[in-house]
Specification:
Length: 89
């Protein structure tokens, strides 16, 4: 049986919802996981949007599947090769 390595990422996304900053963090962690042989990389919830509790902020940070941040996150997965799993609002 061939080994299948999984990376579980712990990180602190920016709470302000800067998807650019959070994507940079994801890129860094994906690169490290990929270089260590990970084939599946799982990020914590809200790793792309940042964590908020106010209902208005939650609605403002909802992302469509075809949004620029989601598209960029998927592109990172292709660049680094492992399957990327993240959860957002």
């Amino acid at each position: 049986m061939k080994d299948f390595r999984i990376a579980l990422i712990q990180c602190r996304p920016t709470p302000t919802g800067s998807t650019d900053d959070n994507l940079a963090l994801m890129n860094e962690r994906l690169a490290a996981a990929s270089s260590n042989g990970a084939r599946l990389v799982a990020f914590p919830e809200t790793s792309l949007t940042g964590y908020v509790t106010d209902a208005a902020d939650v609605r403002a940070r909802c992302l469509a599947l075809d949004s620029r941040p989601v598209t960029r996150a998927l592109r990172l997965s292709k660049e680094h090769d492992p399957v990327l799993r993240f959860r957002s609002f």
